[in-house]
Amino acid sequence: MKISGEEVEKVARLARLQLQADEVARMTRQLDDILAYVDKLNELDTAGIHPTSHPHDKVNAFRRDEVRPSLPREQALANAPADNGAAFTVPRVIG
Amino acid sequence: MTPSELTIHQARTLLDSGELSATELTGALLERISRINDRIKAYITVDEAGALAQARRADQLLSSGDGGPLCGIPLSLKDVLCTKGLRTTCGSKILKNFIPPYDATVVSRLRDAGAVILGKVAMDEFAMGSTSENCAFGVPENPWKAGHVCGGSSGGSAAATAADICLASIGSDTGGSIRQPASLCGVVGLKPTYGRVSRYGLIAFASSLDQLGPLTKDVRDCALLMNVISGHDPRDSTSMEKPVPDYTAALVDGLAGVRIGIPAEYFTAALDDEVEQSVKNGISMLRDAGCEIVDISLPRTEYCVAAYYIIAPAEASSNLARFDGVRYGYRDPQADSLLEMYKRSRSQGFGDEVKRRILIGTYALSSGYYDAYYRKASKVRSLIIEDFKQAFERCDLIASPVVPRPAWPLGETTEDPLALYLTDILTISANLAGIPGISVPTGMSSAGLPIGLQLQAAHFNEEILLRAAHNLEQRAGMVGRKPPLD
To answer: Taking CB atoms and an 8 Å cutoff, what residues of chain B touch A11?
Structure first.
C-alpha cells in the first residue's frame, strides 16, 4: 500500500475537497495504483540532475512598474455568487 | 461541394471573389449544426445570433476590401478558452454559468483577423482526460462510428472539424489533447512549441505543459491559423519573443535533405497491428518525398507517463485552487462557514477525474513528499529533454504513431484510469520537452476508423513539421474523405 484511506482524507482536507465514504475507498484504491506505477521513476539515477520547471531558458519576464487600466469592478463582480456591490461576500470564517 | 465541406483556404477564395457571402457560409454551418449536432454532440454552446452578427460584419469588411485573413471564416473553440460575453464552462459543472469578462488573446487575434465564432465545443473537464467522456455537458461521439470515442481532451474540436460543423477549431494540448483526438477523428492537429502561442485566457490545467493549437481539415489550413494565433504576448509571461514566419511558405513539395528519425521505443508490442502498418506506410511516403530515414532511440520514453502524471496533476492542483466559490463559478448555498463553502462547492462542482488529479497533485507537492515525487519527476523531465536534444542531432523530425489503437467504444476505459493514462505514452513527452508535434491523417482501419501519424520537431521548428506534413498529406489520400454522416 502506497497510500491509506486516512492519508487520502488528509490530502483531501488540504485540497479543500470533501469525499464520501465510498469515494474515499475508491480514490484510495485508484491513487494507490497510480502511486505504485509512478514509483518506476526511482529506477532512474537523477543525482546531480537539475530539475526542469519550464522548457525554455527565459527568466524574469518583467514589465515596467506602471499603472495600467484593469478590470472594472462591475465586470469583476459580474459572475459573483454573492456580492454587496463593492466586494464579494462569503459566509463567515468560523473558529 | 457544399459550403460546410470547404477548407479555410477554399472558403477564402470564394469569399474574396464574392461567389459566397460570409452570411451564407455561417448560415450553412449553423444549419448543419442544427441537423447533425445531436449525433455528434460536439457543441456545448452555439452562439447563433453572435455568429450571424459577426458574419454580417464580415460581409461589410469584404465589400470594402478591409477583411483580414480569416474574414468570414466560421470556427469553433474548445470550451477551455475565455470568450467575452459567451459562456465558458471548461466542460465542468463548476463553471456551468460562467461568462468571461474578457477574450483570450488567441480569441482576440482570431476576431481581429475576421473569424466568426460559431460556439464552444466539448472537452474533458478542465482538459483532464483522453476521451472527452469527462465532459459534464454531453459526451461527443466519433463522426466515423457512432458510440465510439472522439479522443480527448479536445474531442469536440476534432469531431466538429471532421463532421464539417465548423471549418476548423482551436484546441489545447497538455499531454496530447490536440494530437490524439485529431488522430482518432481523422483531422490535422498541431501542438505548437511551448511559448509559441499565448496562454492568456486559456483556463489553465498545467502551466508548464499547456499549449493552444489548430485542428483543421488539411495542413494548409493549419498553417493559416498558426499565422494568426502565434506570437509573443506581454500578458503571458511564458510566451517567447520569437518572430512568427509565414507558415504557409513552409508548404514546399519535396523533402530532400530532411532526416526523419524513427524511435525504437515508440514501436512496441502494445501497438495495434493496423496502426503500425498505417504509420509504416506513412513513413514510406515520406521516404518517397525524398527524406532519409534514420533509426534513433529515446531511451527514457518508458518514464514519461510516470513523470507527467506527477507534474501535470501537481500543477493542476495549484491552478484549480481558484475554483472556491468566492468570485465565480458554483457556490453551495447551504454552506455556513467559509471552509464548508470551499469544500462543498468544490466537491459538488468537480467531477471524479478532476478530484483524482487534484488529490495526486496535492499529495506530490505536500511536505515530506515533494522531493520524492515532484522534484524527482522534474529531474526525470530534464533527462527526457536530453533524449530529444541528442535525437535531434541525428534527425530533423521524429515520426511515430499518435495513439496505440484507433477509436474505441465509449465506456470501455472509464473504470481503469491508469490504463487510460498509458495510452498517452506517444504524445506526452512532447509536452514535457516543450517541442512541437503534429498529427496527420495517414490511413484507415478495417473498421473504418482514422489513423494518424505524428511528427515532432525541435523547438520553434514548426516550418519543417508543416512541410513534412504537407508532403505526407499529398501522398496519403486522406484529405476530403468524409465520415458517413449524411
So the answer is: 359, 362-363, 366
Q: Does residue A14 form part of some domain?
A: yes
Instruction: Please check whether residue B88 is in contact with residue B99, taking contact to mean a CB–CB distance below 8 angstroms.
Output: yes
> Which among A11, A44, A56 has the least Cβ separation from residue B380?
A44
For B160-224, give the DSSP string: HHHTTSSSEEEEEESSSTTHHHHHHHT-EEEEPPTTSB--TTBPPS-TTT-EEEEEESSHHHHHH
pTM attached to this predicted model:
0.98
Which residue, chain included where needed, has cell 462591475?
A74
Q: Domain count for chain A, please give it.
A: 1
Residue B111 half-sphere exposure toward CB, CA atoms < 13 A: 17
Average pLDDT value for residue range B305-324: 97
Helices (H), B65-154: 105-112
Q: Any bridge partners for residue B197, and if so which?
A: B230
Measured between beta carbons, the chain A residues lying within 8 angstroms of B414 are: none
ipTM confidence: 0.96
- Catalytic residue at B76? no
DSSP-assigned letters across all residues of A30-80: HHHHHHHHHGGGGGS--TTPPP-SSSS----------------HHHHHTT-
Sheet containing B74-78: give its strands across: B43-46, B116-121, B74-78, B168-173, B211-216, B188-191, B437-444, B450-456, B397-401, B259-263, B292-296
Share of chain B above pLDDT 90, in %: 97
CATH class of the region B3-254: alpha beta
Please report, for the domain that includes residue A20, its CATH number.
1.10.20
Residue A20 belongs to domain spanning? 5-43
CA-based max dimension of chain B:
69
d(CA B100, CA B82): 6
